[in-house]
Amino acid sequence: MSRRKLLGASVAAGGAALAAPAVAQEDKATIEWKMVTSWPKNLPGPGVTAQRIANQVEMMSGGLFRIRLFAAGELVPALGVFEAVSGNTAQMAHTASFFWQGKIPASVFFTAIPFGLLPHEHIAWIEQGGGQSLWDELYAPFGLKPVMAGNTGVQMGGWFRKEVNSLADLKGLKIRMPGLGGEVMRRLGATPVGLPPGELFQALQSGVLDATEFLGPWSDRAMGFHKVAKSYYTPGFHEPNGTGEAIFNRVALDGLPEELRIIVLEACRAENARSLAESNWENAGSLKLLREEDGVTIKNYPDDVLNALRENAAIVLGELAEKNSISMRIYESNTAARERLAPWSEIAMRRFMEARDGRG
Amino acid sequence: MSRRKLLGASVAAGGAALAAPAVAQEDKATIEWKMVTSWPKNLPGPGVTAQRIANQVEMMSGGLFRIRLFAAGELVPALGVFEAVSGNTAQMAHTASFFWQGKIPASVFFTAIPFGLLPHEHIAWIEQGGGQSLWDELYAPFGLKPVMAGNTGVQMGGWFRKEVNSLADLKGLKIRMPGLGGEVMRRLGATPVGLPPGELFQALQSGVLDATEFLGPWSDRAMGFHKVAKSYYTPGFHEPNGTGEAIFNRVALDGLPEELRIIVLEACRAENARSLAESNWENAGSLKLLREEDGVTIKNYPDDVLNALRENAAIVLGELAEKNSISMRIYESNTAARERLAPWSEIAMRRFMEARDGRG
């Protein structure tokens, strides 16, 4: 029995004279928000996360706080959500921070950077290492408050029609890899090609692309890349994390009753555990199918390629940091977090994995 | 402004005649629970998590759902919480499932098992791989519903006064390592010694213990072990995960209004992200201090020791599975989850860590 029903019951008990003001009270207390997203409705991973956040908020508030979700293009285009929330066309959005690199170069640090933080490290940086306050500062000029809201996990390094055995094999390679990863590839002689997800399969099949990355085994297998390329490379050096971004209109968020503000923020935080569990489970299952049923071979980028990628990633990130003072402060905070967290991940997790797998 | 205040405001607006029933209604809607815990008040890690869950629930419910927290010994002893919630002396507890091994052998699977699941894998097994329904079934005979509520992360392998260079060094070694890990050590010729946390430092200092494990760098450094032992071993083969357990009295949980039931469950789920971030951040910082300021050396268990530990862990777990049919089903579900998830962790995370660290 919800509090709204309890309220209704007490009204009945109190008699008809109470009904009018009580009902008015119920209406007054109901809050309706719009959430615009950068995803198709219920897209596995982020689309499902966005809908679950809206559902959890409505249930935790006893129906007093309703968030109506709009898929990409329904109210505004996929990449129009930042302006839509800034202008209060919608009160919140579910998207990813790296979409805003064009106007806010440092926004990419809040999704993933090449050779950066793994999911458990990224969440620690944001929650404990000063990442949240820098993210808040970065979006404040736009009247926005960002938080983590879900995670698709570690990405793979991409699908290649031909093996990559040395740096020479990257020369002139036509590869789809957006953002900083693509820029790093360009500096190694590859040719990054920008294509939307819907065109990737055919481009890889026809040879317009020699290689493409997308996400992880769960989404990649659904795209069918394994039907035209049998070499699936690791590691996903370019995006070791997949944090989903919830953006709130600052005035709308601050205007909520405290309990509803905490409810929507806690619903986003719970998704950081729930959706990462779902992504890891599904990626693991799809990886098994790719190897055992689809004839896909998992290959490591060669050492000389990884070393060159790492060296050039450091240069690209250094240039990004130089763009302005907040970019530099975010770069320095993120670097300090990596230097603090990576040795713990190596000693606690990597060495355990080796021992468990009999490599110890 | 909370809904309770809004209610009060509308009552005032409605006039004195409404005040009495409205106030009565307010009292009726308020729910008070007791949460007993196995921890000292605000113990870093689990104690803080338990208090945060209570605080978040009260805030998300606008003060309508209040959970009063009792530290270990305040209402019932640390290990009396299971019976206390089963008998509804308290409506919920915050504890750890491996405390119940004596009465429920398979309960250990819901904290950690030797060479078992890492935190991100354990959460995936519980949320996605059937772990939750088996955990529910295991506790149903006691009228209890368990959920994950926080995580202290991967543990370390322990502090040793003398180096462990081969299997021979374990013969007769007096080590504090509770549960299955201790049993595995016993089969390798070590002598597990059961001591409460408060006695560990002095026992290690005086030589009553040759070695002890406790938790991770955050808690271990606070215990001061580095002052009497300089060799800190990895991996924590015996406990690769540190899930905190919230136990609910089934009748009390089912009796909550739906919105409050979802609020308390979502508060527990959010802690799986929040407290793991805190543990990783603090463990990483304390590890740095132990190495750079305390003169501690991180050592790997030798290969022959790890191989013997892994082989004997498999035997000990097989024996546990044979105890009864639910133990076998949980063992098989957990094993299947490890076989599904471990290759993904190795390909996506371990190889990324190697590449990031220049080992790729």
Automatic annotation (TrEMBL), chains A, B:
It holds the Pfam family DctP. The keyword Ligase does not apply. It comes from the Bacteria. CDD domains: PBP2_TRAP_ketoacid_lactate_like (cd13604). The keyword Zinc-finger does not apply. Keywords: Signal. Residues 1-24 form the signal peptide. InterPro entries: DctP_fam (IPR018389), SBP_TakP-like (IPR026289), TAT_signal (IPR006311), TRAP_DctP_sf (IPR038404). This is TRAP transporter substrate-binding protein. It comes from Roseibium salinum.
